[in-house]
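Attaching the record inline, Q. Sequence:
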Amino acid sequence: MKKSLCYCIIVFLTLLTYANTLNNQFAYDDVSVIVENDFITSWDNLRAFFSRDYFNGAGEQSYRPLVTLSYFIDYQVWGKNPFGYHLTNLILHLTVLFATLMLARKFIVDQTILMIGGIIFGCHPVLTEAVCSITFREDIQSTLFFVLALWGYISFRNSNRISWFAVILPAFVFSLLAKEMGIAFIPAIGIYEVFTRKKPAVLFNFIFILTAIILIALLFFMLRFTIMNNPHDTAQLTRFNGLTACKILLAYWQLYFFPIELRALYYPRLLFHHAGDVLLCITALLIGIGYFFLLKPEKKRTALLLFLISFSLFSPVMNIYPIRHIIAERYAYMPASIFCYCLALLITTPFSGRYRIYSVAIICCILSIFSIRTVLRNSIWKHNLALWFYTAKHNPWLAEAYFSLGHAYHMRNRYTDAIKCYKKSLKENRDYVDSYINLGRLYVDQGNNEEAIAYYKIALSYQSNNPLIHYNIGIAYDNVGNDEKALAHLERCIAIEPKHYKAYNALGSFYIKRNNLKQAEYYWRKAIDVNPQFKEGYVNVGSLYANVGLTDQARYFWQKALEIDPNYETPKKHLQSLEKMLKIQN
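Structure, as predicted:
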């Protein structure tokens, strides 16, 4: 089969499988990172990429400058239209697909096997999370540059030309800047070297490139965990456990062979909790081992090398260094870029001659099931309500699922449904602090501030130094006219988090209600000093100046708000009213 025809088939099937993602809305973290975040609307914020101010605006928990940069570019083209962002994800996925085919050619000659591997990678259901969620494109971007770096390294080892340095090192750096999983490049080339045992023709070139790779890794992680460590990250992390790590690897193995029950959330203690999970895992292992022993000797070696490299790529997410989610489908994206070609080797080569028809039947069946499963899974990611309704329905013991479903209802003003979900999450996990906080916010939205304060107090009993809780309860106390406690909690919030610009804004609102214009001006200006992209702060300062007759200053601050968000209606209306008033006066 011609290479061009092979590529056309792969692209066509991948596009067909993911076409329904283009109609999806923003889901999961997309809302907070893109929809509700004005950081990506101004190129001036690129300066924050090189300081901890990045974490004040980017909405990321970890340092992901390359991913955030892609949001800037998307915003310039699409605004906040989800279609464009999903299109970018799909284009990135196709780009990775071409890169994996280029890399796989270093190991596999058979064009049919390459095509089958490419189709599996293009359409595998376990990859839907990375492709469907805009904020998880970090895994796609990191994988793209990882694959390019590995392709460059293998090309260097085959040719010994030092010029491959210009491909390997930039690709490795970009992979790290997209996500820390790029560090898996080091164990991957380590396995390649041990397995191939190829002596370097020019030792200096070999040592030079390896030294550069290691130095880049050390420099990146020194910066990542010192200067560019998120000061706001208070997530509870789980320490490494060898037994859990083994269960996680087995779970990923199962998902590659049997992507039946896919979830937005996984908990290690619930892995293999049911007999069906254990049975599927054992079946996957037996199938893999059985197919492996059916391979011819020369293909066994290739399959084993691909398998070892692919599963070494899970090393950054094995919780050796504590991470937030120690199992997630998006983590399977990078290893799948190698494993899918290993899987193609397994299922295409055992049968020959008159038995080849069985291979064809098995392959067609697998590809059809995978593609249909992916299309169905894409629709679950249509929007937050669909995603979390499905997740909670199929995982009724997960507090986080009910919390997220409650938040989706809350955003749609379905308060009764939201309350039920938040309380259900607390039934499953009574110390799930986020549910107490969101119950408080919901009751504030309904005007029931006393009930909100009660829930915030419970949240404080679990996390007394959480600035978010102090901020929210301070607003609730302000709403009921308890000046002393409102001030105490808002000031406590700032003491814990000096750059909490919303707390400064709340203090400005507190003082303006009490006609203390000087203090209101001070705190509102402090809010925009802390976060120069805080458009509401500019509107508030402008309104204060307008009320005291300082029209030029008012115009300046309202125009600054419009520079941040040209579609922001409030300053537009204020400016229109101001111009009308000035015309009447003249």
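DSSP finds 28 helices and no strands in the chain. The chain has a mean pLDDT of 87.

More tomorrow.
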